[in-house]
């Protein structure tokens, strides 16, 4: 996956043979794509939709009108982060009581949702600015801790 700056606050996101665009809301309507936070929340909703679809399919239940709507709120203060996400899964019709628990369990098993639960994934950032030695955030934090 490679992200490249285009112009302003817009970036292209190349994933295998797919190209997406991310941007920040400007208020002028000249946006190229969703914000990175919107894509993050969309990945959670999309994963939930996939797991719901697969469960319904495995149970022989129709899924052609399955939808997942999503709302989220940002956490107050800094650092900026998503504070809560609400997913509303609408099925093609009433789900029998015998399948409701299984459907919710399947949605709860979503890989994206599991990735934001403890243990949290390790994220490393390395700066490759053309100097001889790349430096990472972890290197800076380690140096600061030892300097005290």
A few lines on this structure:
With 148 residues, the protein is of the alpha+beta class.
Describe this structure in words.
With 148 residues, the protein is α+β, with helices and mostly antiparallel strands. It has helices at 36-58, 97-108, 111-115, 137-147; strands at residues 2-7, 10-15, 18-22, 67-74, 82-90, 126-127, 135-136. The strands form three sheets. Strands 1-2-3 form a three-stranded antiparallel beta sheet, with no helix packed on it. A two-stranded antiparallel ribbon has the order 4-5. A two-stranded antiparallel ribbon has the order 6-7. A hairpin with a 7-residue loop joins β6 (126-127) and β7. It is extended. The two termini are 38 Å apart. The model has no long low-confidence stretch (mean pLDDT 90).
**Count of strand segments:** 7
Low-confidence stretches: none
Span from first to last CA? 38 Å
Output the structural class. alpha+beta
The proportion of residues in beta strands is 25-35%
> Largest sheet at a glance?
3 strands, antiparallel
Index terms:
148 residues; 7 strands; alpha+beta; 3-stranded antiparallel β-sheet
SSE order and pairing:
Elements: E1 2-7, E2 10-15, E3 18-22, H1 36-58, E4 67-74, E5 82-90, H2 97-108, H3 111-115, E6 126-127, E7 135-136, H4 137-147
Helix pairs in contact: 1-2
